[in-house]
Amino acid sequence: MGKAQDILDSQFEAEVLNSEGPVLVDFWAPWCGPCRLIAPMMDWAADTYGERLKVVKMEVDPNPETVKKYKVEGIPTLILVKGGEVVERTEGILNKDKLASILDSHV
Questions:
Q1: What confidence score (pLDDT) does residue 46 get?
Q2: Rounded to 5 degrees, what angle do the CA atoms 81, 9, 78 make?
Q3: How many domains does the chain divide into?
Q4: Is 32 part of the annotated catalytic residue set?
Q5: What is the edge-to-edge ordering of all strands in the sheet holding 54-59?
Q6: Which CATH number covers residue 75?
Q7: Residue 47 is part of which domain span?
Q8: Fewest CB atoms within 10 A around its CB: which of 38, 66, 80, 90?
Q9: Is residue 15 within 8 Å of residue 9, measured between CB atoms?
């Protein structure tokens, strides 16, 4: 079963921006209730789209550089990066159907 990978500021460029395929980034925090609600969906996305998509999670508090660069002000924030560029962004809770719709349109 696929699992979302945790990354740090120092890994963002290599794991996300320089990735060969699209990458879904979940900006989250352990104290965020909605973040905990969508966490299983990140593993579902990694499992379901694993051949075509990388799924990573970035905890906001220990990674201020990336959070600031991508202007993450509310969490959970999901960004879909393709070819080093953000092609989709969503903030707040979303359901599995909405996530699948976003991913299906880009991968």
A1: 95
A2: 35
A3: 1
A4: yes
A5: 5-6, 54-59, 23-28, 77-82, 85-91
A6: 3.40.30.10
A7: 5-104
A8: 90
A9: no
